[in-house]
């Protein structure tokens, strides 16, 4: 690197973020390394999706970059799938009826299972460090360490709507008017984020220190440590926001009782004009996933991979897909 190139790489540029609400200054070199890291994450991602037809009841695992199928997991034809969720880059949790099954991607077989008694339609399951956290009985979540056999169920005091991993030691549970922050192996929450509005249907990680959540018909960003709301985004939706997925500085969201998926730019606080209205027959119940700038969703054609930065469809993986979907960085 010659002197002029080095000087350019060290040049400071201004970036405005939602979290701080003001300009931050970073070097061109630092921004390049950050962006390269983010794109590498997308390149090395796997996603799992469910397909139930008259011929099969199966889970398919694809490599996102090549859009190629890498594994198939066949289920009993009468099995009722409640959730699929990557708990780490090598293991997939599959909740069938009232059993949490663990599929090992390297061994290509089921390696463990646990009976769960959630009456929830979805039965949230996440990986946190070396444990699996799952929605258990009413108002309870369970923590399960498969290696040691450790199990603990904790009463949160109110109905669990969603679970979200924060880091290898912490996770969040959302409730009707609050989000509770938990530390692994602890039976009491270490912080509570009080939501001003009524319903918190969905949460996602905005940054390592912040969560983004639905707050009735609003979007809210909270600081995990202080419990304070640092940003409230009101786009004057007439319906509550039912589900959201963070995609960089944007979020994809779905309104209650509405099959349309909207893209929101959280920095500009506007709904982005997208081509998603041309993708027909959206499913109405949490039908999408995403990573980086890529949104994955079901349509009558198959799985649509949509780039929210370029506002275009990258590809369509044809097939009869339905039900649940999840993505992991491998």
Which characteristics define this entry?
330 residues; mainly beta; Methylamine Dehydrogenase, Chain H; 4-stranded antiparallel beta sheet; globular
Brief synopsis:
The protein is built from two helices and 30 strands.
Question: Your description of this structure?
Answer:
The structure is a single chain. The chain is mainly beta and 330 residues long. Among the domains are: 1-43, no CATH class; 80-234, YVTN repeat-like/Quinoprotein amine dehydrogenase (Methylamine Dehydrogenase, Chain H, 7 Propeller). It has 2 helices and 30 strands. It has helices at 3-9, 28-43, and strands spanning 12-16, 23-27, 45-52, 57-63, 68-74, 81-88, 91-96, 99-104, 109-115, 125-128, 131-135, 140-144, 151-155, 162-165, 170-174, 178-183, 191-194, 203-207, 210-215, 218-223, 229-233, 241-247, 250-255, 261-265, 270-272, 288-291, 294-299, 302-307, 312-318, 325-329. The protein has a 4-stranded antiparallel β-sheet with strand order 5-4-3-30. The protein is globular, with a radius of gyration of 20 Å. The chain starts with a helix and ends with a strand. The relative contact order is 0.12.
CATH superfamily of the domain at 80-234: YVTN repeat-like/Quinoprotein amine dehydrogenase
Radius of gyration, CA atoms, in whole angstroms:
20 Å
Query: Which fold name corresponds to the CATH topology of the domain at 80-234?
Result: Methylamine Dehydrogenase, Chain H
Number of strands: 30
